[in-house]
TrEMBL record:
It holds the Pfam family Acid_phosphat_B. Transmembrane segments: none annotated. The keyword Signal applies. Gene3D superfamilies: HAD superfamily/HAD-like. InterPro entries: Acid_phosphat_B-like, HAD-like_sf, HAD_sf, Lipo_e_P4. Keywords: Signal. One of its GO terms (cellular component) is cell outer membrane. This is Acid phosphatase. The keyword Signal applies.
């Protein structure tokens, strides 16, 4: 909407606004949201992350010795029902990771979010990408895990939807979190590197053309394939269908066997859905009325 139109509506509605009662903004919670407590503060959250990294390292160690014929990146034209993978040939090994809440915790930004109660804001996130390097940390196990991968001769590559315009700042943040060095266009791929926006398949294809990708890690299904967010799986009521898609063979066999998910109860596609999406009609319960058995 243009600025003149916005001013015009404001003048038109001003008399009505003067008569209306303005509801106060909800006060931020005294405590951080439950998901933030779990991910950024709890021992349980740390343990499940460490567990994932232990499993990933064991898997990669075995694959390095076995020299797989195929990578774990879906080939062009593959589907979730009939997956095919990019061949490895004699390409060097790599492991590909999302950044935010996969290898790096955005603790400072989430503190700001929790204290203000404003929710996600594009401008605030852009400022965070540019200036937040002093308030990040590694996902539990990620710093040691990435170092161990490099020790195995596996190139660590980051594929994140942080902005390419902020590449230098993201390189600094990755370094500050203890996750090692990253070079934009070589071991760091960002939103804006191609014409696909936040979709990552194009960047994955670029990486898989150069490397035998033997493991991928992420906190969202889109960190593994854009197919999880395509067609009917991108519909408003797609929550149950996306859950089914993760469990259908042969996709179900990839979790912990090339594809490794890190916990994120704070934001993302995993937090969608209403009552009808989450609670099937045949699995609902209410306590019986007094006197009933």
């Amino acid at each position: 909407m243009s600025m003149p139109k916005r001013l015009g509506w404001g003048l038109l509605l001003a008399p009505l606004a003067a008569c209306a009662t303005v509801a106060p903004s909800p006060a931020p919670s005294v405590n951080p949201p439950a998901g933030m407590r779990y991910l950024y503060g709890s021992g349980e959250g740390a343990a499940i992350s460490a567990q994932a990294w232990n499993a990933l390292l064991a898997y990669v160690s075995a694959r390095v010795k076995a020299r797989p014929a195929d990578s774990v990146v879906l080939a062009d034209g593959a589907s979730l029902a009939a997956p095919r993978f990019v061949p490895c040939g004699d390409k060097p090994f790599a492991a590909v990771f999302d950044v935010d809440e996969t290898v790096m915790l955005n603790t400072g930004y989430e503190y700001h979010d929790a204290k203000t109660g404003k929710g996600f804001d594009d401008a605030a996130w852009d400022a965070w990408e540019k200036t937040g390097e002093g308030a990040v940390g590694p996902v539990p196990g990620a710093d040691q895990g990435l170092a161990a991968l490099r020790g195995l001769g596996v190139t660590v590559i980051f594929n994140t939807n942080r902005s390419a315009a902020n590449a230098d700042a993201t390189v600094r943040a990755i370094k500050a979190a203890g996750l090692g060095d990253a070079v934009h266009g070589q071991t760091l791929y960002l939103s804006g590197d191609d014409a696909m926006g936040s979709r990552k398949d194009g960047r994955r294809a670029t990486i898989a053309a150069r490397y035998c990708v033997i493991a991928m890690g992420g906190d969202q299904l889109g960190d593994f394939s854009d197919l999880f967010n395509a067609g009917p799986l991108n519909a408003e009521k797609a929550v149950p269908a996306r859950r089914v898609a993760t469990l259908q063979p042969p996709v179900a066999g990839l979790w912990g066997n090339g594809w490794f998910v890190m916990p994120n109860p704070v934001y993302g596609s995993g937090l969608k859905g209403g009552f009808d999406d989450i609670f099937p009609m045949d699995k609902r319960w209410a306590p019986p009325a007094i006197g009933e058995k």
